[in-house]
Design brief:
It is a single chain. By secondary structure, the protein is an all-alpha fold. The longest helix has 23 residues, at 206-228. It has helices at residues 7-21, 28-41, 44-53, 55-62, 72-89, 98-117, 127-143, 152-162, 166-176, 206-228, 232-242, 250-257, 261-282.
Length: 289
């Protein structure tokens, strides 16, 4: 997650904001002319003038995301990236003001930055989650200004307003209810243990690993003995069809053996019956096959 700005960085941010607010506003005609010069002629001076004039829009948009705990300077930088993207895609012939077009790109760049840095756990990976992340708090306050826990009706109302499933509302409400916690931190102030000590390890135990290895070796020996009881043709079919990552087709084996596909299928079926019988005979008494 992003860290707080140093005093020197904050001063630089303030100077940038102050300078941006003193940039002259552009008329529609001059704005369109700058955009065409940049697009058609690659005039970087026109691009810089166009972008500088609308950095005030970036700064205004950044204030909308000030409650997410991220430095405004970082938000402004991300917004400037969105502003440059808008300048590279703007088509003045459509008759739309550049500020209207750029506002979407600026907001989108800042939203992506917030989602990437608000938590070490990726949030807002779907359109519904992104919509909930940026609107859930506002809608909750509208429903219950006291900030209490939402009931079923409140969640249902939010789901209806945003066009998402109620379970997604519940999941996002839970996700936003607490900040990230370190697994190395103690669960209580007087505890000497760490949170990670209480996480269950669902991996196999060393004993289970050894048992599985021995069982695998035993099954391999049984299979090798069973294969020895097959005829060369049956063994070849089982090897090509069952013991390879990409098994051969009945048609390919039929051509190779000079028989029909149906005959290959019959031979394979007979070989499998032999293998099953041989493996069953090798099982220790009292063990079900």
């Amino acid at each position: 997650m992003a860290q707080s700005n140093s005093p020197r960085t904050q001063q630089a941010d303030q100077r940038f904001i102050k300078a941006s607010m003193h940039e002259p506003m552009l008329s529609r005609e001059h704005e369109a002319d700058l955009a065409k010069r940049w697009r058609d002629d690659g005039d970087t001076a026109a691009l810089h003038e166009l972008v500088r004039a609308y950095t005030r829009l970036v700064i205004a948009t950044s204030s909308r995301f000030r409650n997410y705990g991220l430095p405004q300077g970082d938000l402004v930088q991300e917004g400037n990236v969105g502003l440059m993207q808008a300048a590279s895609r703007f088509e003045p012939e459509r008759g739309v003001r550049f500020s209207t077009y750029a506002a979407w790109w600026i907001r989108s760049a800042m939203q992506d930055y917030v989602l990437r840095n608000w938590s070490i756990v990726r949030t807002g990976t779907t359109a519904a989650q992104k919509l909930l992340f940026f609107n859930l708090r506002r809608l909750r306050i509208q429903i219950d200004p006291s900030g209490g826990t939402l009931g079923f009706e409140g969640r249902q109302r939010i789901a209806g307003q945003l066009g998402v499933d109620i379970t997604e509302v519940e999941d996002m409400e839970l996700r936003l209810s607490g900040a990230d916690q370190s697994l190395n931190a103690p669960p209580t102030t007087d505890s000497e243990e760490q949170r990670q000590d209480f996480l269950a390890d669902d991996r196999p135990s060393p004993e289970d690993v050894v048992i599985e290895m021995r069982d695998s070796e035993t099954r391999s020996r049984w299979l090798a003995r069973a294969l020895e009881e097959l005829s060369p043709r049956e063994r070849m079919i089982i090897d090509q069809r069952r013991l390879r990552e990409e098994g051969a087709t009945l048609e390919v084996l039929g051509r190779e053996l000079g028989v029909s596909k149906e005959r290959v299928r019959q031979l394979e079926h007979r070989a499998l019956l032999k293998l099953r019988a041989s493996m069953s005979r090798q099982l220790p008494s009292g063990v079900d096959s």
